[in-house]
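Hi Y.,

Following your request, here is the sequence exactly as I used it, all 174 residues.
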Amino acid sequence: GRRRDRGDGQVRVPGLQRSMTAAPQAPGLVALADRIELWPIDRLRPYERNPRTHSEAQVDQIAASMVEFGWTNPILIDENAGILAGHGRLLAARKLGLAEVPVIRFEHLSEAQKRAYILADNQIALQAGWDDALLAEELAWLRDERFDLDLVGFDATELERLLALADGEAASDE
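Below is the corresponding structure, written out as tokens. Let me know if you'd prefer a different format.
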């Protein structure tokens, strides 16, 4: 298999230089933060068969998020500089005129794993839900702090609905 237990509680995953003590419930998982590199933007190769699309408005949102929060999520690439995750971030970086972007190289995946990961990375996140009451409270708090709610990615109609929910709960608590 791809996971290699060295018999000393350390797990090696091909393509990763660092080993970590594996948690019994999740063998083979390793942290990749020490693998972040800065690469010239023109060195990266978008996946030509990427079925995920990014509207101009979404790319603008990603770029605005980068400006506000910094670059929080490196682009994941394969051994040939092909993008596995981060096509939208690359588009935003180009829009911002960045010369370099942070990347993490994934050199241990088979071709099938790469293609599956490109799909899974996008689809699995869509399976998450929201606790509307908690979300409304968070948005109301940000509004009260005068934070620009356009930066959190919700459209105006959804923000209005959620803030009304928060305001209704706040009024009933008094």
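Strands lie at 4-5, 10-12, 20-21, 37-40, 75-77, 83-85, 100-105.

Thanks again,
Q.
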